[in-house]
Design brief:
- With 407 residues, this protein is of the alpha+beta class.
- The protein has three domains: 99 residues, no CATH class; 138 residues, no CATH class; 148 residues, no CATH class.
- Helix content is 14%, strand content 33%.
- Strands 5, 6, 7, 8, 9 and 10 form a six-stranded mixed beta sheet that branches.
- The N terminus and C terminus are likely disordered.
Length: 407
C-alpha cells in the first residue's frame, strides 16, 4: 500500500470544485470497485497509523458542486463510539499491490490546538487561529501521524494556510515574526496573515474566513485594523508585507480610501482622508431608495463604502442577499439625482460599480466608488451615494437622458 502526503495529493484535485467532504452517502447506488477497494484497504492504513482496527461503516464518492462523482472516496470508520472519515485516492485496484493515497481527519483539532499553542508561546495574545493544510479542497485531512511533542517534525515538508488573530496589536515591526524561521528550518511551507482586529467581537466576525487573496481582507476594514503577511514555499520565501487600514466613521456609514479602483493588486487602504457627508432627505418614494442616502464632498479619491445592513430595507428580496452579490439592488452610479430630476453625464463624473459588485460582508454592504467630477467652490468633488432597488430601467423612460442599454 502506498500513502503519500496531502501536499502531493492537492495537485490532482486542483481543477475540481468540491462541495466538501461531509456529503451524505447515496444508499440507493451500488458500491463500485473503487469504493470496495478503499474499504478493503483502509483498515491497514488506520492500523499502521493509529494501532487499532477500525470498523468500516460506509463509503461514498466525494461529489462536485454539480453532483458528479470524483475519483476521491470518503470512508466513514469507527473506533468504539468515535467516528471519523478517511479520504482515499485509488490509483490502482490491483489486489496484489493497490496504489492508494490515504489521509484522515481524526487529529484535525489536535493539530490546530498544537499549532495555536506554539504561536501563542512565540507571540502572546493570540485570540483565534484559522488553519488549513495544503489542499483547500480537503483541508481537514492529514496523512502523517501527529504527536504533540514533535510538532515541527509533523509540519515538516507540508504546506499550511493560517491566519492568527489578535486584538489592538501593532504588526508594523517585522521582527515580531522572526519566530517563523523555525518553520523555515523545519521545511514548512506557509501562507499566513497575522491580523489585528479592533476588538474581541470583531475577531468573532472574521475568524472563520480564509482570506486566500490578501485584498479580500479589505472588505472587512470595519473589523480589521492591520495585518502582516508571510509566505514560503519550495521556491523560497517572500518578503513580509504590512497593511494598515484606516476606516473612517461618517454619519450613518463608514469608508476607507483606496490606492486604486476595482480591487487593484493588493490595494492598500489607509490614507488619511476627510469626507463631508450629510443625509439626502429630499427623495420621494418613487425613487425606490432601500438605504439611507448621503451627499458626500471631498478631494478626488477612490473610496470603499460600508453601509450597515440593518439600515437597508430589503423589500422582500432577502433571497438574493445571501450570497456575495445582492443582484436586485443597484447603486446610484452614472445616474445622479440633482435638483429633483435625474441627470446622466456622458463622461461618468460619478462612477460607481454596478450591483454585481455590491458584496455582503459581516454587518455591512460594501462597494467601491470613485469620487470625481464637477468641483465645488473650494475645489472639492461632490456626489451622492445610496442603494436603490432596480426594476429593469423603469425610471430611465421618465427622463430624456438615459443609456439605451438600460432596458
Amino acid at each position: 500500500m502506498k500513502a503519500i502526503s496531502r501536499t502531493a495529493a492537492a495537485g490532482a484535485a486542483a481543477m475540481i470544485l468540491f462541495t466538501g467532504c461531509t456529503s451524505l452517502p447515496d444508499h440507493t447506488r451500488t458500491k463500485d470497485s473503487t469504493m470496495i477497494c478503499a474499504e478493503e484497504n483502509v483498515s491497514a492504513y488506520i492500523h499502521d497509523k493509529y494501532g487499532f482496527e477500525p470498523e468500516v461503516l460506509d463509503s461514498f464518492h466525494v461529489t462536485t458542486n454539480t453532483g458528479r462523482d470524483t475519483c476521491h472516496v470518503q470512508v466513514r470508520v469507527a473506533n468504539g463510539e468515535e467516528q471519523f472519515d478517511v479520504l482515499a485516492d485509488v490509483y490502482s485496484e490491483n489486489p496484489e499491490a493497490p496504489d492508494i493515497q490515504f489521509s484522515d481527519n481524526r487529529q484535525r483539532h489536535e493539530i490546530e490546538e498544537g499549532f495555536r499553542e506554539w504561536i501563542d508561546e512565540q507571540l502572546p495574545g493570540l485570540e483565534a487561529l484559522y488553519l488549513e493544510s495544503g489542499s483547500r479542497f480537503f483541508a481537514d485531512y492529514f496523512t502523517e501521524l501527529y504527536e504533540k511533542d514533535r510538532l515541527m517534525d509533523f509540519l515538516g515538508g507540508q504546506f499550511f494556510y493560517f491566519n492568527a488573530y489578535y486584538v489592538d496589536h501593532s504588526f508594523e515591526d517585522e521582527s515580531q515574526l522572526d519566530f517563523l524561521e523555525q518553520l523555515d528550518e523545519a521545511d514548512v511551507g506557509y501562507d499566513c496573515k497575522f491580523i489585528s482586529c479592533y476588538s474581541k467581537e470583531a475577531v468573532e466576525k472574521v475568524k472563520d474566513y480564509s482570506f486566500p487573496n490578501g485584498y479580500e481582507t479589505h472588505d472587512f476594514t470595519p473589523y480589521i485594523r492591520e495585518y502582516r503577511d508571510g509566505f514560503r514555499n519550495s521556491n523560497g520565501k517572500d518578503k513580509s508585507r504590512y497593511y494598515k487600514f484606516n476606516v473612517h466613521q461618517a454619519d450613518g456609514f463608514m469608508y476607507s480610501v483606496l490606492e486604486s479602483y476595482y480591487y487593484g493588486p493588493f490595494a492598500e487602504i489607509g490614507e488619511e482622508y476627510e469626507l463631508e457627508a450629510y443625509p439626502a432627505m429630499d427623495f420621494d418614494d418613487d425613487r425606490k431608495a432601500v438605504s439611507p442616502c448621503w451627499y458626500i464632498t471631498g478631494e478626488p479619491a477612490y473610496l470603499r463604502i460600508f453601509i450597515p445592513k440593518e439600515s437597508v430595507d430589503y423589500h422582500g428580496y432577502q433571497r438574493v442577499l445571501s450570497g456575495s452579490a445582492p443582484h436586485s439592488y443597484d447603486i446610484v452610479g452614472e445616474y445622479v439625482w440633482k435638483d429633483e430630476y435625474r441627470v446622466y453625464s456622458e463622461d461618468h463624473p460619478f462612477d460607481i460599480r454596478d450591483s454585481s459588485f455590491i458584496i455582503e460582508e459581516g454587518d455591512y454592504f460594501v462597494f467601491d466608488m470613485e469620487l470625481k467630477g464637477e468641483k465645488t467652490a473650494d475645489n472639492k468633488c461632490e456626489s451622492l451615494i445610496g442603494i436603490f432597488e432596480t426594476d429593469g430601467g423603469k425610471y430611465t423612460k421618465e427622463h430624456p437622458d438615459y443609456r439605451d442599454t438600460w432596458e
